[in-house]
Automatic annotation (TrEMBL):
This is Spore protein YkvP/CgeB glycosyl transferase-like domain-containing protein. Residues 1-17 have a biased composition (Low complexity). Pfam families: Glyco_trans_1_2. Residues 259-360 form the Spore protein YkvP/CgeB glycosyl transferase-like domain. InterPro entries: YkvP/CgeB_Glyco_trans-like (IPR055259). Residues 1-24 are annotated as: Disordered. It comes from Cylindrotheca closterium.
Length: 377
């Protein structure tokens, strides 16, 4: 994505042959915004490339402030006769907001569209899982294919802002591995001193969501919890279908021991997304647990993930139940362990925060709005 090499202050042993990122110098223009600054001149005096990564948090109150701050910094740089920076905006909000602010047009007017990159988490529209509502169901059926409900790729190509970003395309960005959780998982495994995963994975299946009948964004998760509860109550399958620790912001900013034990204590972890958008923290959290991870259909799986190879996709509630049974059977257990191991390995080697930014900076930028995932590098 950029021509010059960028160094790193920390070595990633599993990727020593890949481009390195230097330490971030952080600017805090206002609440809920962070700017990361990369300057390759410290490596090669002949190179004048400067790269900024702006973390765009979906808070409308600060949207204008962040854009104005960014524009001022670009103008300051230009006034000093320096080359234009390359600017990557990373919008990981549930509902993307950056493209609605008028900021893409302002940035490209200063630095040119080919120097302006946009990465977004949610690139799906018309998801309809809300029709699975437990209070007023309009489409509920155990055999209802989820692929009829999960929407379609967002075709933004005709919207005005697309003319102001590189290649007219947005790259897909996913939540990376939470390194604090990874560290706690490893500490817990070391503490248990178990020789094999089977010594730790004492339960069959876990889905960590408490049914909340009126949750307007959680009806899919409600139904998945309901399905797994039915399996546990009416078969010899063991597991957890409910919360094991705090949810919401408390669960996001802290790591609970009960959550760690829940992740490493099950052979299969089932995750489900919110009803109206795609992408969530729970996916990578589950993948680093060592369990087989089963997910509802995802329009754009994270880089490197393939159904049946390192993750398993269930296409309906009935399909979920059948796949749980299969991967717990003697016939399916060998494959379950292989898929789980490959899913964890890929997450740890290629989906840490530094890996995510490395792909965005050094990867081949999308040229087609329907294929936004940057391949592993």
């Amino acid at each position: 994505m950029i021509n010059s090499a960028v160094s790193s202050s920390s070595e990633n042993n599993s990727q020593s042959n890949q481009p390195k990122l230097r330490s971030q110098v952080k600017f805090h223009p206002g609440q809920n915004s962070v700017m990361y600054f990369f300057d390759s001149k410290t490596i090669d005096p002949e190179v004048d490339d400067v790269f900024w990564i702006v973390k765009w948090i979906n808070k409308k109150l600060f949207a204008g402030d962040k854009c104005n701050y960014l524009i001022r910094r670009i103008e300051e740089r230009k006034s000093r006769g320096l080359v234009n920076p390359k600017v990557l905006v990373v919008d990981r909000g549930d509902s993307s907001s950056f493209h609605k602010t008028g900021c893409p047009e302002r940035i490209s007017a200063l630095i040119g569209r080919q120097n302006h990159y946009l990465a977004v988490r949610n690139l799906v529209q018309n998801r309809n899982y809300g029709c699975l509502s437990m209070t007023q169901p309009t489409c509920f059926d155990d055999n209802k294919p989820f692929r009829d409900l999960y929407g379609e790729p967002w075709d933004y190509s005709q919207l005005p802002f697309a003319k102001h970003i590189r290649n007219g395309c947005i790259a897909k960005v996913d939540f990376p591995v939470r390194e604090s959780l990874q560290s706690r998982i490893q500490d817990r495994l070391d503490q248990l001193k178990a020789s094999t995963l089977s010594d730790i994975q004492t339960k069959d299946v876990g889905h960590f969501w408490k049914i909340e009948r009126n949750d307007k964004y959680g009806q899919l998760r409600n139904r998945v919890t309901e399905a797994i509860q039915d399996l546990i109550e009416n078969s010899d399958i063991t597991g957890t279908a409910g919360l094991v620790s705090n949810r919401g912001k408390v669960g996001r900013i802290s790591v609970a021991d009960k959550y760690v034990d829940g992740l490493i204590g099950h052979k299969i972890i089932v995750v489900a997304q919110r009803d109206h958008w795609e992408g969530h923290l729970r996916l990578m959290e589950a993948l680093i647990s060592g369990a087989l991870v089963m997910t509802d259909p995802v329009m754009h799986l994270p880089a490197g993930y393939t159904n049946g190879v390192n993750i398993v996709v269930y296409d309906s509630l009935a399909d979920l139940k059948e796949k749980i049974k299969y991967y717990l059977s003697p016939e399916g257990s060998v494959l379950r362990k292989k898929i789980a191991q490959q899913g964890k390995q890929l997450a740890l080697e290629h989906h840490k925060p530094e890996d995510m930014y490395r792909r965005l900076i050094f990867g081949h930028w999308p040229r087609n709005w329907s294929s936004p995932v940057i391949n592993l590098i």
